[in-house]
Amino acid sequence: MSSTKRLTVAQATIEYLSNQYVERDGAEQLFFAGCFGIFGHGNVAGLGQALLQYPSFKYYQSRNEQAMVHTAIAYAKMKNRLGAFVCTSSIGPGATNMVTGAATATINRLPVLLLPGDIFATRLVAPVLQQLENQYTPEISVNDCFKPVSKYWDRINRPEQLITALPQAMRILTSPAETGAVTLCMPQDVQAEAFDFPAELFEKKVWKIQRPRADKEVLKAAAEIIAKSKSPVIIAGGGVIYSDACNELKAFVNRTGIPVVETFAGKGSLSYNEPQNLGAAGVTGTPGAIKICANADVIIGMGTRYSDFTTISQSAFQNSSVQFINLNVCEFDSFKRGALAVTGDARESIVELDKLLSTYTVAYPYFEEIEKHNTNWDNKVEEIYNLNHGIPTSQGEVIGAVNTFSDEKDVVICAAGSLPGDLHKLWRTRNSKGFHLEYGYSCMGYEIAGGLGVKMADPSREVYVMVGDGSYLMMSQEIITSIQEGYKLTVILINNNGYASIGGLSKSLGTGGFGTHYKFRSEKSGQLDGNYLPVDLAANAESLGAIVLPANSIDDFKQALVEAKKNDRTTVIYIETDREQGVSGYAWWEVPVAQVSTIRSVNESYEKLKNNKKKQRYHL
Ligand SMILES: Cc1ncc(C[n+]2csc(CCOP(=O)(O)OP(=O)(O)O)c2C)c(N)n1
Ligand SMILES: [Mg+2]
Fold it and tell me: 196-254: per-residue pLDDT in tens?
């Protein structure tokens, strides 16, 4: 008989998780940094007790279950997926609060282990407080909502199920191709149940993060296509950074002259100053990136999932004989756009291609064209950074001030609103982990909670959270956690009285910004177009314990950045900006417009849409 260890299911879970390591390129590290949790009757005496019993598996408090998942995701992103957090909630609302977080993790291909409490497996007391009774089957609880947003889902109804569920969870979490949210639902009674677990389950386990090599023949075919290409372009996605392939990418493009455009997750793959870096791709792209992609004869996608922002809603690639080659560790992505699928680790494939293309370079006129685009764009960025718009200032100047002031290693983090597009275009990257945009789910409220995760992953960097008033109002309470744990953030809170981004979009679609201002209901019109609401966001931040530095002019703002850097507690710099002074865009994005309407501007917009849609293409 092999030896056993008598533990509760919750204790066994925590003991198992404390012994999981990952190893990549010879470097081994502990996988989990600890567990975020908010306790309720669904986990307080189960997982809560286990966390108390195993203090080395550090417990962190949060104010909101969605937020704690955001913190965990940002941590994992900063660690290039080599580190993660566990998040536990009670049953019912605590659990469903994590569903948005789970979707954010899965879309962004970032690992997080969710342990929501669940209803009694024994059923005697049903319905327990917060149980949603499904009248047709007692098998379903609200936790079934995690199924479509998780990469792996299980419910531990018997203690011994844990023995096979935990290794499956680890396999998914540590797989570069499969990773995302993993949800193990933990019925509250089962959490506290004791069982004789095999002692072997708790031995140290090291998960090798593999670098699967692509098929040799496919690589050769890819090299042959590129060798004949006159105007190739690389789309660098998040996979380049996660695979730690930035140096190899730089060497490859410096030598061959192939230009690179970057997605939101891929921005920072190359430094802004690299001659081949055309910067932001797609809808929020630079004019050069858009033009080069439109004409390219070969698109080399690296670690990208080809979101509509990257493909300009499938209108970005206009060369009639364009061919796609996709380097991706995930087969689901490598086959996209009818590509020659180079399925494998990005770094390994780049090295292989570099060898196979050792005599290839782009022709000089192409090189020159890229250089010209970059000079023009750099001048434009300089102009926007120094607009001198007056009070209220412009968002572009605020971005410029943060970029100019921050150190090379510092991190800017953002997720939703008009900031992501502006940052994508304007931020001058200097470090592959310096630009942190959650633009897979673009989840308002990710910013501050995510900033905390970034800081926890690397406290040596200053973290600049850039957040609009709308996102701030949705979720800002993790300022408290950052202060509780001593992780200082600098939050740049930009107030433009509502949703500038969606307001602008609404205007462009003929609906005039309806519903996007934070205004009183006017008695006269019956609409929300009265005076601005008298909300004091600076006072709000102060009440949560932050140091608040209100800034009026851009010069005040620059001074506030200097002050904020000296502080060791989370500091919020509050500034109002001119909602109408946006940064121009250079591409279209498909958003449906009413095909019939009584409003003339809507009809006009529908005509424009029909015109833009003519450029859309299938790539098969
Ligand atoms: C959770 C969530 N709800 C709704 C949206 C849709 N949305 C995208 S941006 C935005 C407005 C953001 O407002 P704010 O943070 O003030 O930024 P601004 O647009 O003013 O730059 C909304 C409602 C979203 N991305 N996420
Ligand atoms: Mg706003």
Answer: 999 999 999 999 999 999 999 999 999 999 999 999 999 999 999 999 999 999 999 99
d(CA 481, CA 477): 8
Query: Residue 306 to residues 241, 283, 303, 312, 620: CA-CA distances in angstroms?
Result: 16, 12, 9, 10, 14
Distance CA 323, CA 341 (A): 11
Tokens of 279: 């910067």
What residue owns the CA closest to ligand 1's atom 9? 417
Written as six digits, the tokens of 440 are 């897979």
End-to-end alpha carbon distance in the chain: 58
Residue identifier of the C-alpha nearest atom 11 of ligand 1: 499
Please tell me the distance from the alpha carbon of residue 419 to that of residue 612, in angstroms, as a whole number.
25
With a 6 Å cutoff on the Cβ, whether 594 touches ligand 1 is no
Instruction: Write out the H or E segment, with its range, that includes residue 104.
Output: helix 99-107
pLDDT per residue as tens digits for the range 418-439: 999 999 999 999 999 999 999 9
What's the pTM value of the predicted model, to 2 decimals? 0.98
Only one residue has tokens 């098969």, namely 620
- Cα(43) to centroid of ligand 1, in Å? 33
Residues in the chain: 620
Evaluate: CB of 501 within 6 angstroms of ligand 1: yes
Summary mean pLDDT of the chain: 98
Pocket test for ligand 1, best of 104, 499, 532, 574 (most atoms within 8 A of CB): 499
